[in-house]
Amino acid sequence: MNTSDLPTTVAEYFTDNRSDLFEFTETLVGHDTQNPPGQTSEIVEWLEAVLDEPSLAVERCEVDPDKPNLVATLPGRTDHTLCFNGHLDTVPFDEGDWSYDPLGERDGERIYGRGTTDMKGAVAAMVQVALAYAHTETEPPVTLQFAFVSDEETGGDAGLTTLLETTEFDPDACVVGETTSRNGRYSVSVADRGNIWLTLEASGTAAHGSRPMIGENAIDRLTAAVEQLRSEFGQRELSVDSAMDEIIEESVDFYEPEAGAEATRTLYRYPTINLGVIEGGTAINTVPASACARVDIRLTAGVDTRDALGGIRNCLTGMDGIEITDISWTRGSYEPLGSALVEASARAADHVVDDQVYRRSATGGGDAKVLRHEGIPTAEFGFGTQTAHGTDEYTTTEALVRNAISYGTLPVLYEQLTGGDE
User: Fold this and answer.
1) How confident is the model at residue 312 (pLDDT cuts 50, 70, 90)?
2) Which of 167, 225, 315, 361 is 20 to 30 A (C-alpha) from 280?
3) Per residue in 364-408, pLDDT tens?
């Protein structure tokens, strides 16, 4: 791993305190922060104690005492601020399904537990970066901020939204520590997709199941509407901002080994439509009079969501008994290739791996999308494993070290590319 761009004192700190990084991870995983309920007060108290350093200004921000957020700031040579963001909550787990302790167990070079790769391992690396600069009294080239938030896994308002709406949190750029490596391939995520969630309701006419011809089957109407969406709206090529073209091509190259090039290109050039929930009927021998479906539609960043909504409505117009009763949506977002943050992040990742680092779009979206829509340039990158949200989730000691070195190097590379201002 290349540490040439790290300040010498910081590089030496990483070498001398490597075991602390692994212990930080195990301690973080040992705090049960399954969401729901997503209680993070104890883990935040531990972080406050660890980050209690003279050069670090630590502030707690909360609207829900059970779900506080923590921001630590380390002044740099300029007031240009680079933020590292990580969430402290995790998805739930069923302990009976696990071969290892879901609240942390080390086996050789692997550390098992819920959140090890999503994303307490990255948080541990961020903590070590803060302490490396603070303990060695090394002034970073830019002001560093570390924002540890709650309530990400359920998209709740107590986390990043609270930070943005109730404080002056406004860094010049942000890196979110989501794991962006998969099966030995490495990337920086610079875009995400928007989503439209629809609730479709179908009405029909009840009848006895032995005489279906005298009724109108609401489930049949509902499935016909979903198929209409797939065959018409789902086959319309999206009008994607040309700035996304190169990002899409790198995304195709990244996902090709597991999904195929053509399927991945279709994923970004056309809407994806998933029927997630369907409800209807009261008995096997009754023609259902009502039915309901919830449909997840995803759109590549740079697509006009209003145009897409219009296309969806036009597609369903005239279908008997079909009504859209609820819509929620988000816009996709992207950080242009060539921006200081994207290039610095890719170069920082390059320092710790020998293979290509792709600059790609995520297939979903999380806190990075929220930050970009607030005008904060944001990228996601982190090293871990492809076990997020799964049984026996784990990270590796190598991934943790890669995170620490790349995050520690990033401020230097970012300052070089910005020259102190943007």
Assistant:
1) very high
2) 315
3) 888 999 999 999 999 999 999 999 999 999 999 999 999 999 999
Same topology, domains 8-192+333-418 and 194-236+271-330? Answer is no
Retrieve residue 167's tokens.
Answer: 């404080």
Using 50, 70 and 90 to split pLDDT, how confident is the model at 422?
very low
Which of 395, 405, 410, 406 shows the shortest CA–CA distance to 17?
405
Rg (CA), the chain: 24
How far is CA 376 from each of CA 82, 134, 332, 380, rounded to the nearest angstrom? 10, 25, 14, 13
Q: Please give the average per-residue pLDDT across 304-308, as a whole number.
A: 90
Classify domain 194-236+271-330 at the CATH class level.
alpha beta
Burial (CB count within 10 angstroms: exposed 0-12, middle 13-18, buried 19+), residue 7: buried
3-state secondary structure of 91: coil
Residue 289 — left, alpha, or beta (φ > 0 → left; ψ -120 to 50 → alpha)?
alpha
Q: Burial code of 229-243, b = ≥16 C-beta within 10 A, e = fewer?
A: bbeebbeeebebbee
Domain 8-192+333-418 matching CATH 1.10.530.10: the answer reads no
pTM of the model as a whole: 0.93
Task: Determine contact, residues 2/352, Cβ cutoff 8 Å.
Answer: yes
Q: What is the pLDDT of residues 231-256, one digit of tens each?
A: 999 999 999 999 999 999 999 999 99
CB atoms within 10 A of CB 161: 18
For 358, list phi and psi in degrees, rounded to 5: -80, 150
Tokens of residue 140, six digits: 């970073």
Helix (H) or strand (E) holding 295: strand 290-299
User: Domain residues of the chain, as ranges?
Assistant: 8-192+333-418, 194-236+271-330
User: Which helix or strand (DSSP H or E) is residue 407 part of?
Assistant: helix 397-418
| Both tokens assigned to 324 | 């859209």
